[in-house]
Amino acid sequence: MVLAAVTVTLPAALGTPPLDVVRYAAYLLYAVVLPGTLLYRAIRPTPRSLLEDLTYGTVVGLLAETAALVTASLLDARALLWLWPLLAIVPLARRHLRVRDYPLRPSTTWSWTVAGIAVGFLAYLTAAFLAVNPPVPTGGPHDYMIDQLNLLAVSADLKHHFPLTVPEQGDRTLGYHWFAYGHLAASSLISGIDLPVLWFRLDLPVLAVLAVCLLAVTGWRVARHPWAGPVAAALMFTVGELVPQRQAPAFFGSITAYYSWSSRSLLYGAALSMPLIAAVATVLRRDAGKRDWLLVLLFAAGTTGAKSTIVPLVGAGVAGLCAVHLLRRNPQWTPWLLGSLLAAVEVVAVAVLYGFEGQGLRWGPFAIMIDFVGDLQHGTTVRDIPVILWGLGAYAIAMCARLAGVVGLGRRWDDTEIFLAGTTLAGLVGTLCVWHVSWSEHFFIIAAWPCAAILSAAGLTRLPWSPIALRHALTAAACLAAMSVVLRLPQWYRWSVPLPVYVLGALVLAAALLLGRRHGRFAALVVVLAAGAARLPFDAATSANLGVAYHVRVTPDQAAGARWLRAHSTPAQYVATNVHRVGGGLQDGQSLAYWISAYSERRVLLGSWGYSPESTESQSRAHRFGPALAYWDPDRLALNDAAVLDPTPARLGWLWERRVRWIFVDRAQGTPTAALPALTDLAWQRGDIAVYRLRATSNCTPVSCSDSVQSR
C-alpha cells in the first residue's frame, strides 16, 4: 500500500493534474490488472502467491490489451476499446475473483525490502528523467532526447492507425517491437489522457514498480528461495556497473542507468520477459502440464513484440542446455520440444512483426569497443587483439561483478541454472559480436540480465550468513562505491583507459578477501555484488536526461502548433512540412526531428528519415554509424520541399493526391514564397511556426477529397 501510494503521489508531485492521476489509476485497475489477473488465474495450473497472480496477471492484461487494440483497429472500432475488459471480467469474475488459499506468503521483511528497492528505482527515474522532462514545453524551449520524441510518435501512430508505419514517412510500414507503444496508445484511448502526459509522467513509474515486483516473484519461483527474488531485483535495479564513475570507458554499457528510461520497450520488455523465464523454468523441471506449455507460448509470443532480443536469447539458453545434455550423454526431449516451440514463435515474429527486415544488424566482433580500439570504418582487426584483450578484462570486471554470486551455486548445476547461464552467455556474446549503426548491440546483454541476476542471487542465497556479516559487507561496499566516485587516475594514452577499472576491481577484490576471512564467502560476495551501488545516484546527479547529447530542442511555439493541428485535423489527413533536420546542438543537420508527429499525432508525408528502415540498412551496408544524412530519394524530397516552400497548383495537387491536407512550416528552416498563403489558407501561426490548410483541388475524386477515410 505504501508503494502504491508513492507511485500515485509521484506524478502529482511533478505537476500532473490530479484528475489524470485518478483516471490512469482507474484505467490500470479496470483495463489491465483486473482482467489480466482473472485471465491468468483461469490459465495457470495452481495458485502460488497473491503477488504472483497480480504481477503475472498484469502482464497477461498488457498482452490481452494489445490483442484488443489490434482487433479494434482492424474493425475501425477504437471508440469501443474501453469495453474489451468486460469480455474477461463478466465470464471470469464469479469464479476467479477471489482465491482464498495461497501456499506461498512473503514475510513482512521481504515485502518491505521489495518495496524499498522499487522506491529507490523510482527515485532514480525521477531524478534522471521524469523531473527534468515536461510533457509539453510551455515556459521555454526544452531539449528532449531524440529517441523519446520518435517513440512518442510511434505511440501516436498506433493510437490512430494500424499497421504501424514510420510516423514521418507517410505509409512506409515499420517492422518493430511496438507492443510497449501499443500499450501507451491503448492507455490514451481508454483513459482519455494526453499521450505526452502518459509518456513523461504516468506510465514509466508503473512499469518500473511492475518490473521490480516481477523480478522479485520470478527470482523466488525460479531459484526456489524467497530471498533470491529481492536480491535479484537489487542487482538489476539498484546496483550498477563496477566502474570509476568519473572515468568509465565509453564502451561499458549500462543495465539500469540510462537504458531503463531511454527506450520504453526496454523496461516493458524486461517486465514481459520475467514470466517467460518462470514458465520456461517450470517446463524444464518436467513437472509441467498443458497449461504450463500454454503459458510458455503466450509469454514467448508477447515478448517477441515487446523487445526483439528476448526470445532469441531464451532460445539460445535452451539450446545450450540441449548441448550440455548431449555432452553428458543424457539427452532429454523436453528441452528440444521447448526449443522448437521458441523457434517457431520467433519465425512467426520475424515474418509478421518484422517483415523479414534485418534492422541493420551485422557481424562485427568487438564493435561495442570501437571508441577504444579499431576505427569506425573498418572495425577491429587481428592487430588489435592485445588491446581488445586488455579492454575485455576491464569489461568483465565492470559488467560481471554482479555475477559473483554464481560462486555459491557449487559444481553441480540443474537444468534451470544451466538455462539461465546459457541465456546470459548468449546475451554477452551477442553484445560483443554484433555491430549496429546505433550501438544497439548493448540490448543483448540488457535483455539477458534478468537471468543473470536470478542466477547470481540463487548462488548467494545458498551460502550461510549472519546479520553481522551482512552489515559489515554492506558497509564495506558503501565505502567502495563512494571511492568509485572520487577515484581518478591519469590517462595519457589508449592503453591507460581501462586502467581505473582494474584498480577499482583490485580494491574490491582485496576488501572482499579481507572481509571473507572473518565473515565467510557470503560477506565477500556481498562486497563484490554491491560495490557498484554509486552508479545510479551518480548518473542521476551528473547525467540527467543524458545531458544535452543526442537531443532536439522543441520550443513552445513548435509544440503549440503541432497540438493545434491535432485538435483541428483528423488522423486520415497527412501533413507536409519543411522540417527534416535538427536545428542546432550536437546533432545539427541530422534528420532526427520527430516532434511534429509526436505532438500532432498525425502522419507526415516526408519529415525526418533518420530512423527509417532504409536509413538503417544503407548505413549498415556502408558500415557507418548514425542515421543517414542524405535522403535516398532526392527527387521525392525535392518535390515535397518545392510544394511546401514554392507551391504551384500542380505541386499542391501532388500533395493532395497523397492525402496531405495541411502544411506545417517552420520558417527557421526555410521561408516559403508568397505563393503559399495565396494558394492555401493560413490556419494558425505563432513566431516562426505557421500551419496552412490545403484547398480542395478541382480534379480530385470523391475518395481523395474525403477527410474521413481512415488508414487501417
Could you write a compact summary of the structure shown?
The chain is mostly helical and 712 residues long. The protein has helices at residues 2-13, 18-43, 50-74, 86-96, 108-128, 146-160, 179-191, 195-223, 228-237, 264-284, 290-306, 310-327, 333-352, 385-400, 415-433, 442-461, 467-486, 499-519, 521-530, 535-542, 556-568, 595-600, 613-621, 634-645, 649-657, 675-679, 702-705; strands spanning 142-145, 362-363, 434-435, 551-554, 574-577, 660-666, 681-686, 689-693. The protein is globular, with a radius of gyration of 26 Å.
Strand line-up in the sheet with most strands: 5-6-8-7
Annotation field: number of helices: 27
Question: What's the rounded overall pLDDT mean?
Answer: 92
Give the DSSP E fraction (strand runs of 2 or more residues).
under 5%
The level of helicity is: 55-70%
The N- to C-terminal Cα distance equals: 42 Å
- Globally, the shape reads globular
Helix and strand composition category = mainly alpha
Global Rg: 26 Å
Largest sheet, described in full? 4 strands, mixed
Explain how this protein is built:
This protein has 27 helices and eight strands. The chain has 712 residues and is mainly alpha-helical. A hairpin with a 2-residue loop joins strand 7 and strand 8 (689-693). The longest helix is centred in the first third of the chain and has 29 residues, at 195-223. The protein is globular. The relative contact order is 0.10. The model is unreliable at 701-712 (pLDDT under 50). Keywords: Membrane, Transmembrane, Transmembrane helix. The chain crosses the membrane at residues 25-43, 55-75, 81-97, 109-132, 204-221, 265-284, 296-324, 336-356, 387-406, 418-437, 443-461, 473-493, 499-515.
